[in-house]
Design brief:
Blueprint: E1 3-8, H1 16-32, E2 34-39, H2 41-48, H3 55-69, E3 76-80, H4 86-97, H5 100-104, H6 107-127, E4 131-133, H7 141-147, E5 155-157, H8 158-169, H9 177-186, H10 191-203, H11 213-216, H12 218-227, E6 233-236, H13 241-257, E7 266-269, H14 297-305, H15 326-334, H16 337-348, H17 354-381, H18 383-411
Helix pairs in contact: 3-17, 3-18, 4-12, 4-18, 6-10, 8-9, 9-10, 12-13, 14-17, 15-17
Length: 417
């Protein structure tokens, strides 16, 4: 039977985006394959090493969320990463044979640094009341810069700001701060503000939390997570494909240097969740826009009523466009198909108001969440019993990992203790 491995970082309670993007897929996989699902607490430290106060509680909440959704310890091995110390040993040995360049070229590493720096720049400019328009005109970046005159020069078009920063960040020299300054000034930002922003990026603490060996080398630990169980497949979204390829490269390098111990795991592409948060942005705890699997029915109703709808529909009598409405995106997933068609038709004819539409969604969301809530109550009453399932899974995982490490040490001619 195909061996499948996947993990999640414990960063807080799970929301609907996690369910659709990960849990839903796991529920199907555990019925077909030999699955191991682990709580990746060491990975949580790669950029959260300063804040570990909530780590144990986050692990407990993740256990509860998984089990409440139907992840079954009788069908899959559920365990905690740090309980299997062999992961760290194998990651250390892999780090000895992994070229530094492989890690520096990892797009996820570069992209996270880009997003941290870019978000800081946006927030800094917003704090200085430099306006950012969310709907830029259709010219190219170069045309927009060259045509920016008069009042236009006092505004920043977000797409062009991002383009400028992208070019500056991904230049061959690292971040090209000189280029960034020039473009920001061309876009009409006061030179003093530009120089302050760029100086903060050059000399400040932005991105320092991920300028650590642990963060740079986290794909090596990820490779150890996968290969120590000789997994055949890893369910991932497209953005994680480079990580799986790096894992395959490390497996090949080890096998060529020592002995053919590790299979080269395949990426099992999963459909990514497109469910936005209640404000239209990506659903995230940090944006305070998520609907959690543990939310009460009253909380769900309140959050749904706060959702943004078609911005062009000002009055109840105005026809709406469901295609641009966040509420309708949720209806497509959580509302019966016949009702979705009915809402689509009525919205376009102004025969249903946004409040009524939201109330229907809230009811359907609560219908979806009610079984999860009931299971959660049972688990919380008997939490030590359910925690024991993870401890048993961790012991099972450790036995497999220990056997792999015996083979690794023998292949590498390490001293036998």
């Amino acid at each position: 039977m195909k061996k499948v491995l996947s993990g999640m970082r414990p960063t807080g309670k799970l929301h609907l985006g996690h369910y659709l993007g990960v849990i839903k897929n796991w529920l199907q996989l555990q019925e077909k394959y030999e699955c191991k699902f682990f709580i990746a607490d060491w990975h949580a430290l790669t950029n959260k090493y300063k804040n570990t106060e909530d780590l144990k509680e986050n692990i407990r909440q993740m256990m509860i969320d998984w089990l409440s959704c139907g992840i079954d310890p009788e069908k899959a091995t559920l365990f905690i990463q740090s309980g299997v110390k062999e992961h760290a040993e194998l990651a250390l040995l892999f780090s000895m044979i992994t070229p530094k360049s492989w890690l520096e070229l990892n797009p996820s590493y570069k992209d996270l640094k880009f997003n941290l720096y870019y978000q800081y720049l946006k927030d800094f400019l917003a704090g200085k009341q430099v306006k950012i328009l969310l709907t830029p005109p259709p010219e190219s970046f170069e045309e927009a810069v060259s045509k920016a005159t008069g009042k236009q020069k006092s505004k920043i078009f977000e797409e062009y700001l991002r383009e400028a920063f992208h070019r500056a960040f991904y230049s061959q020299k690292g971040i090209d701060f000189k280029y960034l300054k020039e473009v920001l000034i061309k876009l009409g930002i006061q030179k003093k503000i530009v120089e302050e922003a760029v100086k903060n990026l050059e000399e400040g603490d932005v991105g320092k939390d991920i300028d650590t060996l642990g963060f740079l080398a986290y794909p090596v630990l990820q490779a150890a997570d996968i290969l120590i169980y000789k997994a055949d497949a890893v369910p991932v979204g497209e953005d994680q494909l480079p990580h799986i390829e790096l894992t395959r490269e490390i497996a090949r390098r080890f096998n060529n240097l020592y002995d053919s111990i590790f299979p080269e795991p395949e990426a099992m592409l999963t459909e990514e969740s497109r469910l936005p948060g209640i404000d239209g942005r990506k659903m995230s705890k940090s944006y305070n826009n998520a609907i959690y699997l543990s939310d009460s029915s009253e909380t769900v109703e309140k959050k749904v009523l706060e959702m943004k709808t078609d911005p062009q529909r000002v009055r109840r009598t105005d026809p709406g466009n469901p295609e641009v409405c966040i509420v309708f995106q949720y209806h497509r997933i959580f509302t019966p198909e016949d009702t979705v068609k009915e809402i689509d038709t009525k919205c376009r004819k102004a025969e249903i108001g946004c409040v009524e539409c939201k109330k229907i969604l809230a009811e359907n969301l609560n219908n979806f969440l009610n079984p999860i809530r009931e299971k959660r109550k049972e688990i919380e009453k008997n939490l030590p019993e359910y925690e024991k399932k993870f401890m048993e899974g961790t012991e099972k995982a450790r036995a497999i990992a220990s056997e792999t490490m015996l083979q690794v040490r023998k292949a590498m001619k390490l001293w036998e203790f």
